Amino acid sequence: MDAPGTGERFLVGLVGAGIGTSLSPPLHEREADHQGLRYLYQVIDIADLGLPAGAVGELMAAARRFGFRGLNITHPCKQAAVDHLDQMSPDAAAIGAVNTVVWSGGVSVGYNTDWYGFTKSFEQGLPGAAARRVVLLGAGGAGAAVAHALLWLGTDRLTVVDADAGRAGRLVTALVDRFGADRVDGGGPELLAERLAGADGLVNATPVGMAAYPGTPLPVRLLRPDLWVVDIIYRPLETELLRRAREIGCRTLGGGGMVVFQAAEAFRLFAGVAPDAERMLRHFEVLTSADVGAGRG
Description:
One of its GO terms (cellular component) is cytosol. The chain has 297 residues and is of the alpha/beta class.
């Protein structure tokens, strides 16, 4: 690979639905500017194109033909993309979902930087928080990454809850194979009240709370002041869940740190150079302060 600033071009992109307001393009491109790289980040919104999640394979093939260095993959394509890869990193294979695809020598390799992003954000954003028992809402691609991160961080008992109990069950089965039956259980919303009563924390890895899916992913009456609450959504930065949790005294953490740290790791995989994650955090703060000023925060 050419050294930074010598003229090599990096064409990368993001595939997902409803991603027109994603901050990934400016996060990547601003860091590339600081690194002296010629770097273009394109958004490929399947909702705008009228395509289903299953079309991610066609889009990946087209990106390869058009010379993309790589793609980020987001909701609802993270698990569907797995079937269209030549290779997967060990973490991505274990999680069963990818959010980063890199082409090298004509071979597509899938990675998952979401779990790393969550881990770094949790350690920085909720230092000292007990995480022995945690309830996770959402068993999709993002939920799978968060589950992996929490168990890697040392959670003794993780309960995975999804509106689709079968999907929760499939994720639990995969996690049991890696971490043991005594550390994971899951099912439908009927588990929430009982499991939250004894939990240290709650993580929302569902889309509920985004502008297109307003509201809270669980009844707010189930929250209590000694519970920490994490929402991996970052648009808006303060979801209704976080606002309501903070009002009753919970420690809270939004999705900003996760999106920045996963983006930093994806940038490293795309460009082959180490980004400055703290600088990317400052970029994120500037970008989201513009949102707040416009009333979109």
